């Protein structure tokens, strides 16, 4: 028979929270609780990576398809910049990881740009052409 954690993670999470509130620490599902807490932390860094991918994808499209530039690309880039800044403000422990998170996203962003533009992958740089600081700079817009 499957455990509550396996059958209904939502109810399991609320059950664990109630046990914590009541101080019933010996009744906690400790192994799964540890995994969920780690996943919670990882989801914060995953969100930052996702926003970096969106920003870089749109910056690539901005540079390599200037004839298609639009306000939705600008809005997406600026929203991503704001969201990363907000995540860092709320989770300052992520700040030392930003370089690592940033360095891992370019290939995903370039492939997304290929998928969305139908341009050849060879058209885009092999390596990320922008620094993390440029990507986060609200005044930075690459030229064609």
Question: Can you offer a commentary on this structure?
Answer:
By secondary structure, this protein is mainly α. The chain has helices at 4-7, 9-21, 30-64, 71-90, 98-103, 106-117, 132-136. The mean pLDDT is 96.
Keywords:
mainly alpha; single chain; 144 residues
Q: For the report, how would you describe the main beta sheet?
A: none
Q: In what range is the share of β-strand residues?
A: under 5%
Structural class: mainly alpha
Oligomer: single chain
Mean pLDDT: 96
Portion of residues in helices?
Answer: 55-70%
Low-confidence stretches: none
Question: Helical element count?
Answer: 7
Quick recap:
The protein is mostly helical. It has helices at about 5, 10-20, 30-65, 70-90, 100-105, 105-115, 130-135. The chain contains seven helices and no strands.
Secondary-structure topology with pairs:
Blueprint: H1 4-7, H2 9-21, H3 30-64, H4 71-90, H5 98-103, H6 106-117, H7 132-136
């Amino acid at each position: 028979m499957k455990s509550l954690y396996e059958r209904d993670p939502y109810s399991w999470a609320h059950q664990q929270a109630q046990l914590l509130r009541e101080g019933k620490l010996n009744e906690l599902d400790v192994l799964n609780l540890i995994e969920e807490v780690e996943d919670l932390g990882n989801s914060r860094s995953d969100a930052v990576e996702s926003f970096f991918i969106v920003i870089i994808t749109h910056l690539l499209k901005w540079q390599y398809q200037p004839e298609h530039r639009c306000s939705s690309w600008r809005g997406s880039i600026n929203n991503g910049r704001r969201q990363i800044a907000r995540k860092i403000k709320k989770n300052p422990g992520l700040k030392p990881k930003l370089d690592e998170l940033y360095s891992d996203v370019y290939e995903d962003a370039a492939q997304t740009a290929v998928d969305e533009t139908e341009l050849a992958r060879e058209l885009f740089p092999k390596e990320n052409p922008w620094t993390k600081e440029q990507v986060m700079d609200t005044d930075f817009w690459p030229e064609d």
